[in-house]
Amino acid sequence: QVQLVESGGGSVPAGGSLNLSCICTRSGYSFINYAMAWFRQAPAKGREFVANIAGTGMTTYQANSVKGRFMISRDNAKNTVYLQMNNLQPGDTAVYSCKAVVGVLDFTYDYWGQGTQVTVSS
Prior knowledge:
By secondary structure, this protein is an all-beta fold. Strands 2, 4, 5, 6, 9, 10 and 11 form a 7-stranded mixed β-sheet that branches. The relative contact order is 0.31. It has no helices and 11 strands.
């Protein structure tokens, strides 16, 4: 079973920055085997993809809504993935969760953290 713990959320004014962390405290495989992603869910809205990163960290992808403002990265030595968020706007207010994905034979398994709240005031 994989355990993911997010941190770094908080309340900031528009234009501010936050750096979220998601540490994998328990896993069945080496952390490099997990592709990682960040999602967010605003009140009364569905879950929205934010960004993902390959196990090696060589490939990343961001949603158009955050491109140029958010950057995903990872440190496999620390079993941690980060989401640097700059120029935050009120529309970024949401609970941010990380997700780990691993493929084993013909199956894909994914695991979620509990999430961390980000609130941006205008």
